[in-house]
Amino acid sequence: PEDKPRLTDEFMAKIALEYMQMMGITDTQFIIVRHHNTDNPHCHIVYNRINNEGKLISDRNDYRRNEQVTKALKSKYGLTYGTDKSKTNTRKLRNAERAKYEIHNAVKDALKMADSWEKLRSELAKRGVHLEFVYKDKEQAKVQGIRFSKDGYSFKGTQISREYSFVKLDARLGTEYNRVSPRAESMQGGQPSCHQVEQTQPTAEHTQDPWSGISSIGLFAPSNAQTYEPFPEEESAKKKKRKRRKGFSL
Length: 250
Hints:
The protein is α+β, with helices and mostly antiparallel strands.
């Protein structure tokens, strides 16, 4: 809302076109539609992923590129960063997106009361949020990450906020959870069935309401909107694969 006086149709269209250029969305059919039905000025970009030469426009790592591009544009034009999700009107959101914001607010409030993982899990349960640990191996000897679940939707900690990754929360709680036997803690018992929500998988409402998917391009989304942050182990495995591919054979 702070930027509303500046966001004329012309200025918004200019930013949208620059965003598309930086994201590699070029030489293709597209439309830009502005909405006036909320307090936050925003627009939707719809484009054909098959360009005018019949080639597919890549969406590889679009979540990371989107974050980099939006931050660059915000800095270039002095736009306001959305940092406080607690002010979001969740009643206007749908299904998975609403659950994500409610989880964010629940974790934020629970952390004010929690000084341990058990306390955090207890406080989240009071708010209808389930905390689940993701383990690196079948023996459950080491925690790799965490998930939060609500209303049948499950998100990685980093999908809610980068501040809610296992590493950062563990450092904050100061309990060094990985030194405790996960079997003794029995943190995995009795899980409800949840829809696993990943950045690369569209939720069901996207197929019913095309505008839901369109807005996910993220031009005026908060800077901490859904982003997938691979675990260090995954990144290490990818680097090893790349090194093997670079080898020469006779």
